[in-house]
Amino acid sequence: MILLIYRYDFRRGLDEQEEFFANLTNLVIETYETNNQTKVVFITHSMGGSYLFFSLSIIELERERCHVTRCFFFFLSY
Predict the structure, then answer these.
(1) Would you say 41 and 3 are in contact if contact means Cβ atoms under 8 Å apart?
(2) Distance between CA 45 and CA 60 in Å, rounded?
(3) 1/76 Cα distance (integer angstroms)
(4) Mapped to the 3 state alphabet, what secondary structure does the chain carry?
(5) Could you give the dihedral angle defined by the CA atoms of residues 62, 64, 67 and 72, in that order, rounded to the nearest 10 degrees?
(6) How many CB atoms are closer than 10 A to CB 74?
(7) Which residue of 5, 46, 73, 74 is surrounded by the most CB atoms within 10 Å?
(8) pLDDT by residue for the chain (78 residues), tens digit each?
């Protein structure tokens, strides 16, 4: 098991996070491949859950969606 922490800048809006989304996509692919093609599990807290939910909805390539198996959202903000 590999545990990674990925932060975002909560001061910026979702429309200003192109680099965040690109890096997250690359991190998912890299983690999947490094960990013997084991699917990625996300655990999020608060606003991070909103960012992840939005991120997964805009991932450009369908292939990256196949690398994620579960998402756990704790104390998701509205």
Answers:
(1) no
(2) 24
(3) 25
(4) CCCCCCCCCCCCCHHHCHHHHHHHHHHHHHHHHHCCCCCEEEEEECHHHHHHHHHHHHCCCHHHHCCEEEEEEECCCC
(5) -100
(6) 10
(7) 73
(8) 778 888 888 888 878 888 888 888 888 889 999 999 998 898 988 888 888 888 877 765 555 567 888 888 888 776
